[in-house]
Structure formats: structure tokens, C-alpha cells
């Protein structure tokens, strides 16, 4: 690894990547890591400067005219995997060779590949782990955006795009390029999944040398800074010939107030310290301030011991199906009486700001957070569904708001609250539905085992079963989230 790091650092010098002298790129169990030397590093220091010309993207790769780029999502990951694969296949002929030779040689161990007989890992462990992942948040992430298994989308892209594209590229540009195997494409995909960054409107998802050597922590000390709004046609940060055809966004170039000329801004991708970094410590980045263990496991192949971003989520249709299954539906076309966007827009969620049972999520709407609190949106769907069966559609929003205020007065143990009327019985029904939802979720988790048995199973797992351990840890986390939610709503209303 030492030799690989030296080759990488030499390549960085040639490509103008500036690494602060107080940082060390060192070997690590998963490949590389970044540590500080004997000096304390202050906050707001630019520690790594990567010119965008050093970034490997669909736009910058040697097969750019053969690959259709995509701005984000799975399509972008697949396209970048193909760009990376071609550069890997080119070996020393690739202009990124010095960087590529430092990447992990085997596939990053992602759950999407756990049932494939590739990579020399024990298939038995993978199959066992996938069994435990059934019903978990991780399993939801193993479906592509179209709902089909992610592995099928990867295989289809390999057969339909990768094979013909590499053949065309080989005929026209790089004669003798060996046709890649599916395993090689999966390795490229695993590298993209676990290392790529969204660089800007031109490069999109890209491999960013050195930025991808930092490991993740929720107590991270560096973050990335980039000028995203560049010309999507040519990547220029300054005025360019495309400006006439593309409406400029405010960030496209920064007008100089004094003489109206654009300010020259370095077009680099920077790693900047956001806190002081102690001497002789590992320097961590963040792979997202809100990234849960399920997302870390699905995308990067690891999870944290404790992760405050863990949550359980539902999509709207699944939630409605659950609610409808337990009711005599009057009108299946309007299960909430009113369209969801009208209901949620008219609801004042701030009334729950100090609630012990509800919270305001930053992303997924219908969810339970790691403290077992339910999102106000999840609560509102349940409430509106109940209300829609009791009052005409035009009264659903008002009754939902009334129940929100009633809920809060009960939480605050306001003695003037009527605890015998309709609001009270509705609140009890709502609490009961939340409890049922938790129980319903648990039925699909952990192959019918309870939390204690799962804990015992985890203790029995040998270190030779790393995937099963990761999967069991995920199941146990989800169990404890749902258990704590169930317990608080059982005694909550
Ligand atoms: C962007 S790379 C970071 C550099 C990495 N050590 C390497 O050179 O392969 C992301 C990979 O690093 C590993 N990783 C990052 N943070 C980690 C952490 N906190 N715990 C365990 N593995 C981690 C995982 O294998 C992940 O897929």
C-alpha cells in the first residue's frame, strides 16, 4: 500500500492537487484514510484543493462521446461506473492511472452484491444476511427507482449498454481493450456507490481523487466545498459562449461590482476544515449529515455503532394500504378526504414543536425517528384517514387541526381538557393505530424473532460472518425504534 500511496501522491502533484502539508494519506483496513500530523489544524482551513480538471466524470473520461450522461440518481451512478470501468480497463494508458491504482482491488462489499457468487467472499454469509435484511430499511434501498431489484438494473445496464459501448470504444479509440466481465462492472459500480461525489452542473456525479480517501464520521472535521452552478455545457465558471442560450443562474459567475467583469474564481473542489483537528488524529469527512445506518450500509457497506439519523419510513401508498386494510373504506379514491398536499399545506406542524411523541423530519415524510417519535406527517395521514370517515371532506382539515391541538393539550396534561368527548375517543383510536402500525412493521422484521433472541443470535455470530452481523445489527436497531414508539403511544393518549 505504501508504494500505491507514493504513486497516488506523485500523480496528485502532476495534476495540481494541493494537499496541506499537515495531512497524511495513510493505509487503512478498507484502503486509505487521512490523518493529521503533529500540528493542530484550525477551523476554516482549505486542506485539499482538487482542480476540476483532475475529476473523473462521464464528461471528462476518455469515452465521453460514447456514454450518455445523466445528472443524478441510479442512471448517473451506472453511467459513471461505465466511465470508471473503461479507465480501469485502460490501465497505465488512462490519465487517471496513478489515482485508479490506489483504489480497493476487490469489490466494496455492498448488500446489493451479497447473493452473487463473485468476489471470493462467502456466499453463505451473504445469503443469511439478506434473509435478515428482509423488511428492513436496507431492503427498501435495494430496489431501484422503478421498484425492480437494483441488481437487475445493474445487470440490464451491463448487457444493454456496457458490453456494446466498450466494444465500440475498443474499435474506434483503444484497440485491444479487453471486454469487461460483469464482476468488473460490479466492482466499478461498488466504487462509484461508495466514493463518488456530486461535483457540479457540468461534471455531475464524479470520482474525486483524495476527497474520496477520507472516512466518514458524524463527528466530522472536514467538508466539501464546490461551485455547483457552472455552465452545464462546458463547465465554465466564467462567462462562456453558451451564456446566450442558457439563462444564467446567480452563481454562474460572480459580477465584480467595481468594473462589471467576472471575478476569477478558482475552479476547484475543496476539502475545508469545519472544526479544529487535533494532532495525530484521523480526519473524517461526512457522507451526509442526515445519512442513516441503512443508507450507509446500502451505499458504503458499513454502519456506525450509534446513528442518530436512523429511522423507519413508509411511502404514502403503503401507509394508505395499511390504513385501508383495517377500515370499511367509504371512498377508496379519497382515503384522506382531501388530497395530501392540500391537507399538509394547511396544517400548522409547529404546534408539535415541543411534543414528546411527534417531530418535524428533515427528509422522509412518513417516519419514526431514532427516539421513537413519529413525524407530524405520519400522524396527519392517520388522523385525516379517521376524520374522512366521520365528517365531510371540507371539514377534514379543520378537524385534523383541532385534534392536533387536543393532542398537545393532553401531552401537557392540561386539566381543562375534556377527556370524555369525541376528541378523546378519536385520539385513542389514533394512538391504537400507531401501535398497530408498529406491530405490523415488526411482523416483517427478524423472521418472527423478538429483540432478545436477535441479540443472542448476534452474540453467537462469528467474526467470519461480517455480513450477517451487519444485517442483524440493522434489524435490532429497527426493532428498538419501533418498540420505543409502540411503548410511548401505548401509554401516550
Ligand atoms: C470514500 S471511501 C473512504 C476511504 C476508504 N477508507 C478507502 O480508501 O477505501 C468509503 C469507504 O471507506 C470505508 N469507510 C468510510 N468510513 C468508514 C467508517 N466510519 N467505518 C467503516 N468503514 C468506513 C467504507 O468501506 C466505505 O465504502
UniProtKB/TrEMBL annotation:
Q: Which Gene3D superfamilies match?
A: set domain protein methyltransferase, domain 1
Q: Which residues form the SET domain?
A: 108-288
- How far does the signal peptide extend, from start to end residue? none
Concerning InterPro entries, the annotation shows:
SET_dom, SET_dom_sf, SETD3_SETD6_MTase
Query: Which cellular component appears as one GO term in the record?
Result: nucleus
Single GO MF annotation:
protein-lysine N-methyltransferase activity
What is the name of the protein in this document? Answer: SET domain-containing protein
User: What organism does the UniProt record list as the source?
Assistant: Lentinula guzmanii
Query: What does the record give as the organism's lineage?
Result: Eukaryota, Fungi, Dikarya, Basidiomycota, Agaricomycotina
Amino acid at each position: 500500500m505504501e508504494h500505491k500511496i507514493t504513486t497516488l501522491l506523485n500523480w496528485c502533484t502532476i495534476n495540481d492537487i494541493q494537499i496541506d502539508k499537515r495531512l497524511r494519506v495513510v493505509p487503512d483496513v478498507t484502503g486509505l484514510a487521512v490523518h493529521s500530523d503533529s500540528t493542530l489544524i484550525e477551523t476554516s482551513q482549505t486542506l485539499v484543493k482538487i482542480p476540476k480538471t483532475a475529476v473523473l466524470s462521464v464528461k471528462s473520461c476518455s469515452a465521453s462521446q460514447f456514454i450518455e450522461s445523466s445528472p443524478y440518481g441510479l442512471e448517473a451512478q451506472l453511467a459513471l461506473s461505465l466511465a470508471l470501468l473503461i479507465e480501469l480497463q485502460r490501465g497505465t494508458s488512462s490519465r487517471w492511472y496513478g489515482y485508479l491504482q490506489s483504489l480497493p482491488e476487490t469489490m466494496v462489499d455492498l448488500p446489493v452484491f451479497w447473493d452473487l457468487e463473485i468476489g471470493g467472499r462467502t456466499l453463505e454469509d451473504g445469503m443469511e444476511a439478506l434473509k435478515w435484511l428482509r423488511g428492513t430499511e436496507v431492503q427498501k434501498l435495494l430496489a431501484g427507482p422503478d421498484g425492480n431489484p437494483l441488481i437487475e438494473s445493474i445487470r440490464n445496464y451491463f448487457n444493454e449498454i456496457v458490453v456494446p459501448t466498450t466494444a465500440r470504444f475498443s474499435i474506434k479509440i483503444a484497440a485491444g481493450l479487453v471486454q469487461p466481465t460483469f464482476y468488473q462492472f460490479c466492482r466499478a459500480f461498488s466504487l462509484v456507490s461508495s466514493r463518488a461525489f456530486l461535483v457540479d452542473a457540468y461534471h455531475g456525479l464524479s470520482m474525486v481523487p483524495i476527497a474520496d480517501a477520507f472516512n466518514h464520521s458524524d463527528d466530522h472535521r472536514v467538508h466539501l466545498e464546490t461551485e455547483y452552478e457552472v455552465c452545464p455545457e462546458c463547465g465554465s465558471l466564467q462567462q462562456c459562449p453558451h451564456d446566450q442560450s442558457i439563462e444564467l443562474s446567480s452563481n454562474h459567475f460572480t459580477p465584480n461590482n467595481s468594473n462589471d467583469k467576472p471575478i476569477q474564481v478558482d475552479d476547484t473542489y475543496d476539502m475545508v476544515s469545519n472544526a479544529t483537528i487535533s494532532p495525530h488524529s484521523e480526519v473524517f469527512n461526512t457522507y451526509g449529515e442526515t445519512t442513516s445506518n441503512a443508507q450507509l450500509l446500502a451505499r458504503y457497506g458499513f454502519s456506525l455503532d450509534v446513528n442518530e439519523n436512523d429511522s423507519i419510513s413508509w411511502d404514502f401508498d403503503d401507509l394508505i394500504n395499511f390504513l385501508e386494510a383495517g377500515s370499511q373504506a367509504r371512498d377508496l379514491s379519497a382515503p384522506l378526504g382531501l388530497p395530501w398536499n392540500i391537507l399538509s399545506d394547511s396544517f400548522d406542524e409547529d404546534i408539535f414543536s415541543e411534543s414528546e411523541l411527534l417531530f418535524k423530519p428533515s427528509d422522509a415524510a412518513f417516519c419514526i425517528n431514532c427516539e421513537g417519535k413519529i413525524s407530524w406527517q405520519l400522524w396527519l395521514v392517520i388522523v385525516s384517514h379517521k376524520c374522512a370517515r366521520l365528517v365531510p371532506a371540507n371539514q377534514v382539515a379543520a378537524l385534523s387541526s383541532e385534534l392536533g391541538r387536543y393532542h398537545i393539550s393532553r401531552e401537557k396534561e392540561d386539566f381543562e381538557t375534556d377527556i370524555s368527548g369525541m376528541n378523546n375517543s378519536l385520539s385513542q383510536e389514533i394512538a391504537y393505530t400507531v401501535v398497530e402500525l408498529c406491530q405490523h412493521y415488526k411482523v416483517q422484521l427478524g423472521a418472527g424473532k423478538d429483540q432478545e433472541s436477535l441479540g443472542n443470535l448476534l452474540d453467537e455470530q462469528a467474526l467470519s460472518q461480517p455480513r450477517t452481523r451487519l444485517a442483524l445489527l440493522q434489524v435490532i436497531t429497527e426493532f428498538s425504534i419501533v418498540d420505543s414508539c409502540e411503548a410511548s403511544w401505548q401509554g401516550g393518549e
